[in-house]
Amino acid sequence: MNDNAGIPELDFDPYAPDVLTDPYPMHHAVREAGPIVKLKPYPTVVASARHEQVHAVLNDHVNFISGAGVGLSNFNKETPFRPKSLILEADPPLHTQTRAVLSRILSPKAVMQVRTAFAAEADALIDRCVAKGRIDGIHDLAQLYPLKVFPDAVGVGDEGRENLLIYGDLVFNSMGPRNELLAKAAARMGPVTEWIMANCARDRLRPGGFGDQIYQAADAGEITHEQAPLLVRSFLSAGVDTTINGIGNALFALANHPGEYARLHADPSLARPAFEEALRWESTAQTFFRTAARDTTIAGVPVEENSKVLCFLAAANRDPRKWPDPDRYDITRRPSGHVALGSGIHGCVGQAVARLEGELVLGALARRVKAIEVAGPPTRRLNNTLRALDTLPLELIAA
Ligand code: OVM
Q1: Average pLDDT of adjacent 10-residue blocks, the chain of 399 residues
Q2: Is 97 in contact with 223 (CB distance < 8 Å)?
Q3: Sequence spans of domains, the chain
Q4: Closest residue (by CA) to atom 4 of ligand 1?
Q5: Distance in Å, CA 190 to ligand 1 centroid
Q6: How much distance in Å is there from the Cα of 84 to the middle of ligand 1?
Q7: How many angstroms does the Cα of residue 237 sit away from the middle of ligand 1?
Q8: Which of 287, 286, 284 is nearest to 357 (CA)?
């Protein structure tokens, strides 16, 4: 089991269908094997499933860069599947410039401006779900909400928004190996990519929306006009599938923990911490990579330049070294320090929007629904990066 430099080597493929279906046994094994490990199927990768090392890697953007890709593929050796994101797959100084623009557009203060509109949509949607009683938590709720409010806020037209789901699925699959999941997603890619890029153009974006504000930043000289459409693309890549699954996973957590749901119903102001704890407990983005920019170390163990470093975010979020009773979903835990939204200079720039969406959906639910019952077995939608449900049959008991 121990190879070069004493790094344990484990025979797990994080992208095998059975592992994607139930990653927790692998998370446990990788975490307990050591602070960093190697994985037999991916010899150029070192991986960590512990909170301390994952956090340290994410907070060292000098040694562990993003510009060579944040998936398995190393852009120093392989061509990226699409033009690189100017924020996700970028390092300072480029990242510093683009990040400044996006973080202003998505700042807590800016996000307060959309709160009223987002709240009205959450209330209306939950009313429709309560009227139905029996719902599919994914198709009737988790997908509909972000797919309405986020493109509205960016300023994208109503036509063809389902392309955002297909594109998100593709982008997150592309961060894994070239397996069957990626091939299936890529088969749907041509017209979808065209639709996405067409909707990044200034004349397609509602004046004043998040998308238009990127062009305003270009007018002001903070970024170039050539960069603007690619930055709008980041909204359309990262803004929908992530929150859909964040909300879907939170519904899954609450449906399977009736005691926690009862506490939420009794005190709907727990909506925001309940969503936060769901991010920790069942992390939407399971993994992100960095690339070693030079020979360096992790936990004192040598890591060679150009190695890909696999950060198991979801496993770090259940590391018993960091969290008491880590497998327990506890809506009053207040899990600050979780890495579901990353950490460091690349930490989720849209987190204020993501948290707002989660809070409003769970809050509306808490006020109108006394209990959520599991009405059938959920099914999974396997993705190389995202923890995603395909269906989640629920019975909503009105308050
Ligand atoms: C982007 C992008 C795409 C996927 C995820 C993400 C989590 C960003 O295109 O910038 O952040």
Answers
A1: 72 98 98 98 98 98 98 97 97 98 98 98 98 98 98 98 96 96 87 96 98 98 98 98 98 98 98 98 98 98 98 99 98 97 98 98 98 98 98 98
A2: yes
A3: 2-398
A4: 238
A5: 19
A6: 10
A7: 6
A8: 284
